[in-house]
Amino acid sequence: MTNEDQAMLECTSLTKTYYSTEPATQVLNGINLTVDTGEFLVVMGASGSGKSTLLYNISGMDRPTGGDVLLEGQEITSLKDTELSRVRLTRMGFVFQQPYFLSNLNVQDNILLPAFKAAPKDKSAATARVDTLLERFGIDHVKWHGITQVSGGQLQRASICRALAGQPGILFADEPTGALNSSMSSEVMDALTDVNTDGTTVVMVTHDPVCAARADRVVYLRDGLLVDSYEMGKWSDDKAAQREDDMFAWLSKKGF
């Protein structure tokens, strides 16, 4: 495999066991997964299947009990905490169900903070990049607002701006529309689709089939194992209804 077609992320024989319970709870049971560069991958499964645990372990937010995770060919599971933090800050972006903004900063400063930490000697470039992102995602008019003065959809678009401010190669999203209504969810999914169209790899956990229909590929988790996958190809607005119907049909066969 050349650098040009090297996978963005690979995990091999990934396991995660929590020993704080009696008996111990094994949540991931030997997962093998490859995420191609530029892919939009969605992880689905019933509650308790291990979706979020998988996301945390492949993104370096948690450490697996066994197995390996490679980011663009670099093994990251054995990195020291400080090294892994730097990888997350400079090469990954994160969007969660709740935005976790600092209440004492306005929208723009919340987005700028991690960008400044990633490149403290290049603050002018980071500021210009954030201004471009705010305009691109349609929230530049609220950048001076406090986080309680904007809508949930605007906050999640701001979260996407924050995730992209450091120019990551891959963006991880954990139920990014879980706390939003259908209109706001559509706004956020449009933004994530645009991010992927621009070339950023996206890995998203969701319980929503409508959101999952945006993916190039959906993998299904059951009892900590990847049991199936569904290739959908790149999103197009004119095929939205058909993709959503196909996704509902595929999931219904699994009792989802």
Structural commentary:
The chain has 256 residues and is α/β, with parallel strands linked by helices. The protein has eight helices and ten strands. It has helices at residues 51-58, 81-91, 107-118, 123-136, 152-164, 182-197, 209-212, 240-252, and strands spanning 9-18, 25-35, 40-45, 66-71, 74-75, 92-95, 170-174, 201-205, 217-222, 225-231. The strands form two sheets. Strands 6-7-8-3-9-10 form a six-stranded mixed beta sheet, with helices on both faces. The chain is globular.
Structure at a glance:
The chain is an alpha/beta fold and about 260 residues long.
Write the layout of secondary structure elements.
Elements: E1 9-18, E2 25-35, E3 40-45, H1 51-58, E4 66-71, E5 74-75, H2 81-91, E6 92-95, H3 107-118, H4 123-136, H5 152-164, E7 170-174, H6 182-197, E8 201-205, H7 209-212, E9 217-222, E10 225-231, H8 240-252
Parallel strand pairs: 3-8, 3-9, 6-7, 7-8
Antiparallel strand pairs: 1-2, 1-4, 4-5, 9-10
Helix pairs in contact: 3-4, 3-5, 5-6
